[in-house]
Design brief:
Elements lengths: L7 H11 L13 E4 L7 E13 L3 E12 L2 H21 L7 E13 L6 E17 L3 H11 L3 E8 L3 H26 L3 E12 L7 E2 L6 H8 L15 E14 L1
Antiparallel strand pairs: 1-2, 2-9, 3-5, 3-6, 4-5, 6-8, 7-9
Helix pairs in contact: 1-4, 2-3
Length: 258
């Protein structure tokens, strides 16, 4: 059997011509390898392929903070506890499951007056973070507004995600395989051979960080305090999540036969 070898540049040009009639724009993969291993072995095509599926988030995660100040440490802690209890009771009253409410990031620090040459203790500040998960997108505006009125005086972040992420990722994987097969078929035909079975397939990574997109909300103590005094100030904020992209990346090896 005569050995065949096509350069990546030549194959890419042939592939571009063979797919020119398709209505979908298809890019040539970054890595294409076509090889024959001896006269008695079938050649192989190794391809890197990726696909993206867009979905609309339907869930959110909100991170509040409760910050309290007082002259004495125990008074500061008491104020923080009262505000924290008020916030958590409000959230549960809005139908948020207790398992979806997490308190963390406890801190109690002294406050000093540095205006003179000497340091003067003027009180204490305590902060507690409250993370609320499994919030529907429709609830976000209400919880932001109500949470401020119920005791939160900082909003660290709002992150959106989709309950259908895993299904979308599976769809992206299937599309990546289909795209790779289409390109490999064109490459095999260009080399005068027939595309065979899948020899191996490898998933590069399932990027879990891609499950969340930043909602762009970050209000500190001063701005939230002002919003709390204005009716519907926080509820009128733009909380539209937009779309999120779910990416899948694979490496797949096909055999070629005569």
């Amino acid at each position: 059997m005569k050995k065949r070898m096509l350069t990546a540049i030549g194959l890419s040009a042939m592939l571009a011509v063979s797919l020119a009639g398709c209505s979908t724009s298809v890019s040539v993969p970054d890595t294409v390898r076509v090889e024959n291993v001896g006269d008695s072995a079938d050649g192989k095509i190794t391809m890197d392929s990726s696909e993206t599926v867009k979905i609309v988030p339907d869930m959110a995660k909100i991170v509040f903070a409760v910050t309290s100040e007082a002259k004495k440490a125990d008074e500061c802690q008491q104020k923080n506890t009262e505000a924290l209890n008020s916030l958590t009771e409000y959230l549960k009253g809005q139908g948020i499951d207790e398992k979806s409410i997490t308190t963390s990031g406890y801190s109690l620090n002294p406050r000093y007056d540095w205006s003179s040459d000497t340091r003067k203790l003027i009180g204490y500040e305590m902060q507690t973070e409250v993370t609320v998960s499994d919030v529907t997108v429709e609830q976000v505006g209400t919880l932001l507004s109500g949470g401020v009125n119920a005791g939160a005086n900082e909003i660290y972040s709002v992150s959106y995600y989709s309950s259908g992420y895993d299904d979308a990722y599976a769809e992206a994987l299937k599309k990546a395989v289909e795209l790779a097969r289409t390109k490999a078929q064109a490459l095999a035909e260009a080399s005068g051979r027939t595309l065979g079975d899948v020899v191996s397939i490898e998933e590069y990574s399932d990027n879990q960080y891609g499950r969340y997109i930043d909602g762009g909300v970050n209000l500190q103590k001063e701005s939230v305090s002002m919003a709390a005094g204005a009716e519907n100030a926080v509820e009128d904020m733009n909380v539209m999540p937009g779309e999120m992209e779910v990416d899948a990346n694979i490496k797949i090896v096909f055999s070629m036969v005569d």
